[in-house]
Every structure is written in C-alpha cells, then in structure tokens.
Write a structure and sequence with these properties.
14 helices; 13 strands; 2 domains; 6-stranded antiparallel sheet; Rossmann fold; Beta-Lactamase; globular; alpha/beta; 37% helix
Length: 351
C-alpha cells in the first residue's frame, strides 16, 4: 500500500502525505487535503509502514514514546521528510515529498534580486513564511546559486536534510540534526571553528540559536535561516521579542548592523489549477530601515519597503496585484492573503 500512496502523491504533485491509524490515507494536493479512495489503515498497517521508514535505532526511539524526525529514500530514489508521532494513542505519519532536482532561481521564477542577495559577502538573510510555503526550496535555490558562481565553504545545519547538494565551485558540507550533530546550537558553535563562508541554519527556533546566528553574521559570515513569520516587520519583532527586555536595545543595534534581507513567501493556488505559485515581500536593508530598527520604529518598515521598489524591494500587495494582472492567480485568492483589500484594489486600479 505504501508504494501505491507514494506513487499517487508523486504523480499528482502532492506536497504531503498523512497516514493515521483507522483513517484513509490523505494527501495535500495543490494546497488542499484529499482523502484517497483506499481502505482505512489499521494500527498494524501504520506500524508496518513505520518499520519500513525508520531505522532500528529510530524505531526504538519511537517505541520509547518519542516523536521521530528523519528523511527516507524509496526504491526509486525519491526522498521524503518524515515525522512519526501518535494521536489519541494511535500511530501516525506525516511525509513531505522532497524534490531530488535542486531548482534554480530562474526555474522557480523567483525575483531576480535573490541572486544578488545570495552573493552578498556577509550578513543575515531570512526566508520567512508559514509551514509549507516553500522556504526550504527557495533557500536551496539560493545556496545552489552560490555553489554555481562562487568558491565558498558552505556549511548547512538541517533537521532533516531536504535537498542534497553536490559541490560545484563551492565546497558544501551538510550536517543533519540528531545524526551528525546534537542540535542547532551545538552545530552553530562548532560551525564557527570549521572555516565556513556561508552558514545555513534550517530554523531559528529559540533565543540561543538566534543569538548564535547573529554572532555568526557579525563575525563576517553570510548566514541564511528561516522563521515562521509573515512579513519583514513581524520577523524583526519576533527576533527582538525572543530576548529578555534588558537585552532588546542591544539586539536592535546588532540586528540593524547584520540583517541584509527578509524574504517573506507564501504559496497560492494558480488560477489555471496547474499547481501553486509563490508570492513574495522582499525587504532589503537600507540606512533608513536600520535606523527604524535601532529606534524601535518597526511599524514604519512597510512604508520603507514601498519606497524601496527601485532597488529591488517588493511589497506583498504589489506582488499580488502583478500576479492577478498576469492572470496567474485570481482576485479572490489575492484577497484572502492580503491584509488590506482596499490597497490591493488601488494597486489593481479597482478602487
């Protein structure tokens, strides 16, 4: 049954698979959950799949009551990110389909400014957005651009490794959390002694990881990471709020000095139903935005992005309006994601 489900998901461009005991298999197809026309899986069925997906050590970890994160490669060479867990005492599995081919910035039709951001000599670059918005794929394309165009030592810390890079012009070392290193914090501390030029931190999950990432950027490295935030202003607030109040003034100064770009991304269904397309807000660091961060005037950043279009910045509503005008997404889809429908209408000339 597992082979049938994996094949269906690949053939129908699904992003995720959910297997839960006593329920039918469910896939996420073009952003929507679809229940497959198969028999509900028994508890034994799901346990059998878990045994296939996990190593013996991982299976023992699961039996001892832990959730398990890992990757899996099937017999056809396709890779998956896996989380094995329990719900109401029953076994359950979430699988994320991974692409073996690392797409380029051009293939993904990402904003060209991402190429310039990728080749920055140092600083902190954040790719943000909700779960399942394609952050890892965008980062993989940016890392691939560095790998193709510069001779750098690129070190990644991932949980788990999603895209496997082959060294081209650059040398790439990819470390998997719980497999090659205990956690992000330990990996980041070690990274600073491993002569990297570029460091990718899969996710800035806590105060210590954020602090270490800022320090790495401050000491001359180009650091990429992700946050589950929407928009540059919310991202900056999230970072500052992760620190105790007595440190926040210092962190604003540090962040204003090292932050180079915030790329916020969401995936929206295409109007022609042929998959999904990405929409972006892009903030590039300027002297004005740096001063806003230092002086805690974060609410003014959205205005600064609007005035920075000529240097490659991009507003969410402006990008939504372009996608609607080009008939890539519908106006209804754009209206659901914008925080200001009237502003979107003004962009579209529909006031």
């Amino acid at each position: 049954m597992l082979h049938t489900i994996l094949k269906y998901a690949r053939d129908h461009q699904c992003s995720d698979i959910h297997l839960v005991a006593e329920r039918k298999p469910v896939v996420r197809e073009i952003g929507e959950l679809v229940s497959l026309n198969l028999e509900p899986m028994s508890k034994d069925n799901v346990f059998e799949v878990i045994r296939i997906l996990l190593s013996e050590e991982q299976f023992d970890l699961y039996l001892s009551g832990n959730d398990v994160d890992c990757s899996y490669t099937d017999e056809t060479g396709h890779r998956y990110r896996i989380n094995v867990y329990r719900q109401q005492g029953l076994p359950a599995i979430a699988l994320r389909l991974l692409n073996n081919h690392i797409p380029t910035v051009d293939e993904m039709k990402l904003p060209p400014i991402l190429k310039d951001i990728s080749l920055l000599p140092r600083g902190l670059v954040l790719v943000t957005g909700p779960t399942g918005s394609g952050k890892s794929t965008t980062l993989a394309a940016m890392i691939n651009h560095i790998n193709t165009n510069k001779s750098e030592h690129i070190l990644t810390l991932e949980d788990p490794i999603e895209y496997i890079h082959q060294s081209k012009q650059s040398m790439i070392n990819q470390r998997e959390i719980h497999k090659d290193v205990h956690d992000f914090n330990t990996g980041l501390r070690s990274a600073l002694r491993e002569d990297p030029d570029v460091i990718l931190v899969g996710e800035m999950r806590d105060y210590e990881t954020i602090s270490l990432a800022l320090t790495a950027a401050e000491t001359g490295h180009l650091v990429f990471s992700t946050l589950h935030t929407t928009g540059a202003a919310a991202t900056i607030d999230r970072i500052i709020d992760a620190f105790p109040p007595h440190q926040q003034s210092q962190i604003r100064i540090q962040l204003a000095n090292v932050l180079k770009a915030v790329i916020s991304q969401s995936l929206l269904p295409r109007a022609d139903y042929a998959g999904r397309t990405a929409v972006h807000e892009i903030m590039l660091m300027t002297d004005a935005i740096g001063n806003m961060i230092r002086e805690n005037k974060i609410v003014q950043i959205n205005t600064a992005i609007q005035t920075g279009l000529r240097i490659g910045m991009q507003t969410l509503d402006g990008n939504l309006a372009k996608l609607v005008t080009d008939q890539i997404i519908s106006f209804e889809t754009a209206s659901e994601i914008t925080s200001n429908v009237e502003l979107l209408k003004r962009y579209l000339g529909r006031a």
